[in-house]
Every structure is written in C-alpha cells, then in structure tokens.
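Journal club side-thread
Mid-discussion, someone asked how the predicted structure for our own chain would compare to the paper's figures. Pasting it here so we can look after the session.
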Amino acid sequence: MTREQRGGDIDFGRTLWIVRVRDRVDGRIDIRTVGVCAALLLVTVVVSVVAVGTGDFYIPPNEVIAAVFGDAPRLTEIVVMEWRFPRVALAFLFGAALGVSGAVFQSLTRNPLGSPDIIGFATGSYTGALVVILALGGGYYRTGAGALVGGLATAAVVYLLAYRRGVQGFRLIIVGIAVSAVLASVNTWLVIRADLDDAIAAAVWGAGTLNGLGWSQVGPVLAVSIVIASCLAVLSRRLPMLEMGDDAARALGVRAEPTRLMLVFLGVALIAMVTAAAGPISFIALAAPQLARRLTGTSSVAMVPAACMGALLLVVSDVVAQRVFAPTQLPVGVVTVSVGGAYFVWLLAREGRKQ
C-alpha cells in the first residue's frame, strides 16, 4: 500500500494483490482497477444484448443469449448470429482498440490531449486509406495497408518536425494538430476530385460507420488485435518509466527512443485497423483513457481500463446511431463526434485553467 499527498488531498492507500513467482514479486494488481474493468465489461455485455435484441424484429434478452449458445429457433439464430452480433462484436473490438491507442499516446505525450485523432495519426490513416480507395478501388486488405502506411508516414513527419534533442509531449501535440489540419484539407481535395459515386462512398465511409460490416471483418480484426495486444503487454511496463522522462527511463535500463518508436508503431497500427474497416471514428481514443483514469483513480492512464471504457463508449454510440432516428441509421462517427466534441471543449477549458 502507498500513501501520497496531491493538492492537499490525502490518499490513504490502495489495496493491491501482490503476484509472486518463486518468492519474487512479479507484479501488482490494483483491486479497484479490476473492479472498474469488471463493471465496465458487465455494462458493455448488457448493452450489447439489448442492442442485438432491438430492431424491426425484436428479440427478448433471454432468446438473444440462447441464440448465442445455439439453443434458439433457426430464424432467431440467423438474426442474432449472422446479422446483428458481428456488428456488436466489431464495435467492442474497435472501441477497445481506440481506447488502447489513446492510452498509449496520452502516456507518451504525458498530456490528456495526446490522442491520435488530435495529433494527426488518425487523419493520416484516413488519407492513406482514401488514396487506396479512390485510386485502386479499395478492398479490405489494400485499404488496411494504405491506412497503416498513411498513419506511419504521418507519425514520422510529426515526430521529425517535433524532434528537438528528444520529443516533448506538448510540442508533439502542436505539430500534430498542424499536420492534421493540412491532411484534412488534402482529404477534402481528394474527395472533391473523385468521381461522384466514389466521392459519395468515400464521404459516407469517412464519417465512420459500422454499417455493412460482418463476420468477414471480425476474423482479421480479432487476429490483428491479439498480435498487437501481445506486443503492448510486453512493452506496457516501460510506459511508466517513459512518463518519468527519458533520462530517468535510461537510468532504469529502458532504451527510450526505440521503445517510444515501437509504441508509436503499435498505436498507429490499431488506428489503421479501425480506419480500414470502419473509417475514422473520432474522440473515443481521446475520451476513453481519461474517463477510465477517473474511475480507477490512478495517477496515469492504463491500457486495460481504457480498452474497457472504449468498448463501452463505442457500443453505446452505435446503439444510439442505429435507434435514435430509426429506421434511418446514422454513421457511428456522427454520434462520437457530437458527444466527443462537447468533451473536448470541456477538456480544453480544464487544461486552460491549469495554466
């Protein structure tokens, strides 16, 4: 247990589980964080069951659960497992990926504004995917490759422009905002120059939508998510050391620049994965890590709570997008931008009061 004082408020400690391997402390698990993650996942499951059951063909929650386990009438199983469940599963995976990506970049920049959709990486992924769609006709894997290349190229440009004997978080954010503005203009120009049908398709996809997605996307997304999550699990212990500064990280045996570059690559890969399938979905990566941090009461952002919060936010946003103006379905990005914009204004005001 620890005791510390912040801003006059006394924290009387947190209850931890100590993990020991051969009489050596191998890790610490915060019970409050575990409880918050469990609660977020439970709420997400409940919302998911409701989302799968609602629509023109209503299915009670007990029948939804029965269909998942293969114990429901054939028509119910078709509606649940083939039509609705893949969309909810993708909303869960995409939300978790966006939350983790936001946690990585906010930790690296040590700033709550350090989100990939603020510092331009998401916009760069959109640019790369848009070029592939308009020039090569799209395709999931080609669009994914284009999104990854665009995101990495943007990250490289932002990183090089912000580099001055190291990378400071605030400088990275300012440069990223400027690069994002330039890329947004490029994206608009690409859409204007495209054929009408391609421009309409690109504009709808560019709003961020889960419409039309199914099992064909779930498999690749799940596989990529597992690989990236495994890599991040290895690097996650180095993030708190990087937050203390490069000198402190090096003193603790962490190679600061290579570790930071690997984390940037993995964070961009998560954004590219989402962008390739659903288009740019804004503000989940910005809001999820900070909301999770406030619930867990930790001093810094953590990946697992951010993933749970991101999954919940996107699942709820997609339910709103489908049902508020039913039978018309909105792109989920419209909902996240509407809610996230208000959160962004509040966050800017809060950060301004700290100066």
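Post-session note: The beta strands are 4-6, 9-11, 16-21, 24-30.
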